[in-house]
Amino acid sequence: MAGPALLYCVGATKAGTSWLYRYLHDHPDCAMPAVKEAHYWDTFDAADLENQLAAFRMRLRELRKGKSEAVKAGRDWQVENLDRRINEMKALMATLSGDRTADAAYFAWMFDGREASALVADMTPNYATISDEALIRMRDASPTAKFLFLIRDPLDRLWSHIRMQAHRQRQAHEVYEKKANNILHRMLNRGMETHILTRGEYPAIIRKLRRIIPEGRLLIQFTEDLLTPDGLACLCAFLGIKQTKADVTEPVHEGPPVVMRDKLRVRALGMLNEHYEWVARNVGPLPQRWQQNRARA
Question: Is 217 domain-assigned?
């Protein structure tokens, strides 16, 4: 029996990757790692590696705190789940810190204990920003791996990313809605927070993916289409798994709603207009939400 197929979901950030992770996690054909974003292929640089390990160490502390609370409350099922997540994260950290020759330790972490499944996946949106050289190494290390890049309406994706940033950075005295709009203001007027734009640079990312990843191994899919029966069927066919019922009513990590200032919205749409135009020409017919914002631009 052949081993599981491997999927790399390389983004985009705030384009539905967490929703897809949960769908695949609950899918009977799939065996997903407890850590959604492995950050293996974007941490060969020493500084990037240390930053990611620091983030994982912080997450480990949160998981251990949660486990302690679950033990006190007698929630054995939760303790078991948290133990799995803690152990897999510790193993991943050891993989990132250890010998990366031939990437053998990474594939052992990905596949060990999951050999009977049809699919495993590493869903790290930051992979969309790695260099050509890193992407080629990623492609060649597993010659049958498939790549998925989800693209969400540019304005919706941008605003969701900004709100996530505002939530993470907000101090106790700051108003969440004001902080989110201030981030967008700085981006438009001072050229700040450029990493948010980089994560949604669809033309550059798609051109790179198409240049490096063979056609049959790459799927570019609209997030808005993914959340439909036909779109989900397309993805499952690409992955070689059967389609199962999906809950499309509950977004994952969407965050509380925040109103974007009208003046900023107009300028943001103007900045993103070329993305709407490029995707319409080079990817396919735009979903309704894209068409609505494109018309406003």
Answer: yes
Domains: count for the chain: 1
pTM: 0.94
**pLDDT at residue 1 in the model:** 45
Peptide bond between residue 12 and the one before it cis (omega within 30 degrees of 0): yes
Band of residue 173 on the pLDDT scale cut at 50, 70, 90: confident
Question: Please, are residues 161 and 199 in contact by the beta-carbon 8 Å criterion?
Answer: yes
Q: Is 19 exposed, middle or buried (0-12, 13-18, 19+ CB in 10 A)?
A: buried
129 within some domain: yes
The alpha-carbon radius of gyration of the chain (Å, integer) is: 20
CB atoms inside a 10 Å sphere around CB 101: 7
Element (H, E) at 90: helix 76-97
Report the pLDDT averaged over residues 58-70. Answer: 97
Residue 261 DSSP SS3: coil
- Please indicate whether residue 169 or residue 163 has the higher confidence score (pLDDT): 163
Query: pLDDT tens digits, residue range 222-279?
Result: 999 999 999 999 999 999 999 999 887 766 666 667 899 999 999 999 999 999 999 9
8 Å CB contact between 264 and 125:
no
Instruction: Report d(CA 143, CA 223) in Å as an integer.
Output: 26
Domain membership of residue 70 (yes or no) is no
User: Residue 249: is it exposed, middle or buried by C-beta count within 10 angstroms (0-12/13-18/19+)?
Assistant: exposed
In a domain, 211, yes or no: yes
Distance CA 226, CA 18 (A): 13
- Domain residue limits at 208: 5-33+115-296
